[in-house]
Design brief:
Blueprint: H1 6-9, H2 15-32, H3 36-42, H4 47-55, H5 74-87, H6 89-109, H7 112-123, E1 129-132, E2 148-152, E3 155-166, E4 173-179, E5 189-195, E6 201-206, E7 217-228, E8 232-233, H8 239-275, E9 277-278, E10 281-282, H9 287-315, H10 321-350, H11 357-367, H12 374-387
Parallel strand pairs: 1-4
Antiparallel strand pairs: 2-3, 3-7, 4-5, 5-8, 6-7, 9-10
The structure holds flavin-adenine dinucleotide.
Flavin-adenine dinucleotide (FAD) binds next to helix 6, strand 1, strand 3 and helix 12.
């Protein structure tokens, strides 16, 4: 239950958050909306757009100013992802992955040299980041990875393939989690930073996806890829634990992505229901439609409160593994439910590409899968609940 503490309950955006949201809203209307379907149909990853977002500080939202970032809080971060996702889920997903995963991992676990070298480039989007944990046979069971890193003097040699990696092809730098111990042993994985152009590091197949089509998803391949020990993040064996920490924060951004998609679909459905007439009256007059809208509005607000609650805990340095999983789980399922309802309200028009809701419907499904499926979120929540 949300704490009755007044500060925790007061989720009204302050002036800064509202300003940042307005900037993201304006940017999305001007630079994203006109091209959404073009990028979706061609599966184009619009690299230049991310460079523009970088100039606005939106690719290094949480990075402190001393490393070239915007130095903002999770509240502003959530508002940026949400505003972008209201217009295009794909762009929202890429902004979230770049900020939370690659950049977030280096920010949380990199040493000073690594932070000074990589964060300014990532925060401005001079470089695009990727983060590789998942493999073909280890998704939910990510700890069972097969990619290995073997020490060779003051270097490591990486071999293996990471699958489903956001920006796996275009990235300039990737954080990669590889096995440095025996399979199924505890503390058997380590995180490394690998730069584009490193011999033995390349991209494989780009996925042809149902939704989120403008967000690039591809394989990253390591073939006798030799990197210096200075590219290791933290201690040997800490990689999986670090990843769980990165995902705790990342899940808040997927909740924000879900909220944006849900709100985009909901707003379109409300407007359409007031304009579309059947039986000589707007379809919003029919209780079957208005009750659907009532459910949507209620569930969106509940998802928003869960997301803000997780943000509040994160900002105050409190443990929020359970709360971020709850926010991600509930918001993502809400996005799927709301966008499905929106297609229904649009009727036949909802099934065509002339109207925006079919894309919200396709994009929303990723939210219940990426950064841990809904089933995995329930496992995380149940584990925390039972721990007491
Ligand atoms: C568009 C996209 C972008 C992505 N970006 C990245 C990225 O940048 N970096 C990265 O590392 N990964 C990325 N991923 C991978 C993503 O995190 C995984 O797809 C996700 O964790 C699920 O793993 P899986 O696909 O192997 O499914 P599986 O683990 O095979 O799961 C299949 C089904 O089984 C269920 N299941 C599995 N285990 C259990 C269990 N113990 N109990 C109950 N049910 C279970 C799952 O919930 C699911 O319904 C991305 C994926 C997509 C689709």
């Amino acid at each position: 239950m949300i704490s009755p503490n007044k500060d925790v309950m007061n989720f009204q955006p302050d002036e800064l958050t509202e300003q940042v949201a307005q900037t993201a809203r304006d940017f999305a209307q001007k630079h994203i909306k006109p091209y959404v379907m073009q990028w979706d149909e061609s599966q184009e990853f619009p690299l230049q757009l991310f460079k523009e977002l970088g100039k606005l500080g939106m690719m290094g939202v949480l990075v402190p100013e001393k490393y070239g970032g915007a130095g903002l809080s999770y509240f502003e971060y959530v508002s940026i992802i949400e505003e972008i996702a209201k217009v295009c889920g794909s762009i929202g997903l890429s902004v979230a992955a770049h900020n939370s995963l690659c950049t977030g991992h280096i920010l949380s676990f990199g040493n000073e040299d690594q932070k000074n070298k990589y964060l300014p480039k990532l925060a401005t989007a001079e470089w695009i980041g990727a983060w590789g944990l998942t493999e073909a046979n280890s998704g939910s069971d990510a700890g069972n990875m097969k990619t290995t890193a073997v020490q060779d003097g003051d270097h490591w040699i990486l071999n293996g393939t990471k699958n489903w990696i956001t920006h796996g092809k275009t990235c300039d730098v990737a954080v990669v989690i590889a096995r440095t111990g025996k399979a199924r042993e505890k503390e058997n994985a380590t995180a490394f930073i690998v730069e584009k152009g490193t011999k033995g590091f390349g991209a494989g197949k780009k996925e042809n996806k149902l939704g989120m089509r403008a967000s690039e998803t591809a394989e990253m391949i390591f073939d006798q890829c030799r990197i210096p020990d200075t590219q290791r993040m933290g201690k040997v064996g800490e990689g999986f634990k670090q990843s769980l920490g990165v995902l705790d924060g990342g899940r808040i951004s997927i909740a924000a992505l879900s909220l944006g998609i849900a709100k985009g679909a909901y707003e379109a459905a409300v407007n359409y229901s007031k304009e579309r007439e059947q039986f000589d009256q707007p379809i919003s007059n029919f209780q079957a439609i208005s009750f659907k809208l009532a459910d949507m509005a209620t569930e969106i607000l509940a998802a928003e409160l869960l997301t803000m609650h997780a943000c509040e805990l994160k900002i105050n340095g409190k443990k929020m593994t359970k709360e971020s999983a709850m926010a991600k789980y509930y918001a993502s399922e809400t996005a799927v439910k709301v966008s499905t309802g929106a297609v229904q309200i649009f009727g036949g028009n909802g099934y065509t590409k002339e109207f925006p809701v079919e894309k919200f419907y396709r994009d929303s499904k990723l939210c219940t899968i990426g950064e841990g499926t809904s089933e995995i979120q329930k496992i995380v929540i149940a584990r925390e609940v039972l721990r007491g």
